[in-house]
Amino acid sequence: MKAACWQGTHDVRVETVPDPKILNPRDAIVKVTATTICGSDLHIYDGYIPTMQPGDIIGHEFMGEVVEVGSEVKRLKTGDRTVVSSAIGCGHCWYCKQQQWSLCDNSNPNGWMQEKVYGYGTGAIFGYSHAFGGYAGSFADYIRVPFADFTAIAVPKDIPDEKLLPVSDAFPTGYMGADLCNIQPGDVVAVWGCGPVGQFAMRSAYLLGAERVIGIDRFPERLQLARDFAKAEIVNYEEVDVLEALKEMTGGMGPDACIDAVGMEAHGTGPEGLYDKAKQAVRLETDRPHVLRQMMVACRKGGTLSIMGVYGGFVDKLPMGAAMNKALTFRTGQMFGPKYIPKLVEHVLNGDVDPSAVLTHRLPLAEIKQGFEMFKHKKDQCIKVMLQPD
């Protein structure tokens, strides 16, 4: 089969690789009908995710058709159409039973790689380095899905792929970001980053009862989508001081909750931005925490910070005094896919949300390199690229 393999920083190639096989009776083989480049994939593309090996198949946001199932798969059958969670959970450990699927104790055979940095190993993620399991990803014709009864969710056959594809990862990530905010009636929620996850976080904040939502970005097309799709008020951080703008928009209190939908490659301005970029380049700091700093200062006293942007290692110069003295609550995590995906499919079927609004470009898998470059550099007003295997 054909698959997109990581060969190094900014080097992704479509190659011929062996077809996946059933390795465990709880596996399924899925023919990928649609997949997409996620902002998290850019961290791999840019060389910031360790434990990648040349030849690794990347990609983790996808859907498709079940073409083979293992002998112990009970909930799926050949021919089923499915949306697959990017986070892999066994369904039986303590964490999975608590619906904390990305913390699974059993899905990641390489959890030991994380222990020195994180203290404990987390669950696995498709196509996201050997520290997260070393599973082959979705930029391929076919993919092996472990723990298929829990990781893959059957969906109706009469809904276009475009409407369901983001339900695999971007939509539940944004929804979880809003859910972690414990939104109360009348709340104001500010979201840093108006990419796909940020768009879904804003839309989800309204679904969960927020009164006002504010989107923060610098790209006009993303801010416009935040206004049109997410129904958010918008702030362009290159034109105004974000902290002053948020104070003015909230009567001096600050947002009740702040969501980070950016992560380790946050774009900073002025000396702070240059400082983080330089330290990250020489690996004195693995992640750029510009958004975290702003959120910790901007959030109202007693508010909540929800961090869904991906961070891999270490950051510095965080205003912990502000966080502690303002009694802020931090909530974060890789998304709990199987907890949210069925609910979000219902929202799609009911017409509450059309996730295809974030898909601005469609390319064959063979043109994935162009897709990465377009997505990374925001060419042609790109917000999200849908890829279809040949």
TrEMBL record:
Signal peptide: none annotated. Residues 25-149 form the Alcohol dehydrogenase-like N-terminal domain. Residues 196-264 form the Alcohol dehydrogenase-like C-terminal domain. Its cofactor is Zn(2+). InterPro entries: ADH-like_C, ADH-like_N, ADH_Zn_CS, GroES-like_sf, NAD(P)-bd_dom_sf. SUPFAM superfamilies: GroES-like, NAD(P)-binding Rossmann-fold domains. Keywords: Metal-binding, Oxidoreductase, Zinc. It holds the Pfam family ADH_zinc_N. Its EC number is 1.1.1.-. The keyword Metal-binding applies. One of its GO terms (molecular function) is oxidoreductase activity. Belongs to the zinc-containing alcohol dehydrogenase family. This is Zinc-dependent alcohol dehydrogenase.
